[in-house]
Design goal:
29% strand, 230 residues, Metallo-beta-lactamase, Chain A, alpha/beta
Length: 230
Amino acid sequence: MKLTWLGHGSFRLDIEDQMLLIDPWFTGNPVFPEGSRDDAIAGATHILITHGHGDHASDALALTRETGAPLVGIYDLMSHWEATEGATTIGFNKGGTVMLGDVAVSMVAAVHSSSMASESGPQYAGAEAGFIVRGEGHTLYFSGDTDIMADMGWIGEYYAPDIGILSAGGHFTMDMKATAWAAKKFFNFKVVIPAHYKTFPILEQSADDLIAGLPGVDVKTPEVMETIEL
């Protein structure tokens, strides 16, 4: 399994027979290297979207048209894009699991908000969510944008993920200390990767508090466009 951080909350995951783009955001992403887009999206099979905010979903329609990779996410948003944009989508909901080739993707809860910009203000975009991704002998929890929530208790017990990609930048999501607390309280991760940080000055710039709060856990902090093996 290979994981590439695309900056902010965006990732490329090469797993089994799939190349998953998760919340890919390139247009306006201040930390994404210019000229790296083609490398980031090469071979995409599916595009997973956790919620409708622009820093997670604003490139989704352009990318599905360019790559032919279906959009995968909450039923309400996927149905909207299919009806209004003619997009190819896989819509499901929390508690559901879809098979993307040999990879199982389950949708779980997150605590955040979900909307898209429109001329009349924020437009409903379905509920925010996280994903459990299973393949190559690993179970990965992708939290999406979220605060600490009680649902992490059953997610950790039921799915027993060994890898966590967790929002940790603060202000809009958990910060590093809160993320470390949640990871210890609810999970038994072998590897944790922080997300949704360093993009803007308002967000946390360092993962030091996460590393300090998770002794014995391999906290990986790749640079943007750096690929790591899991």
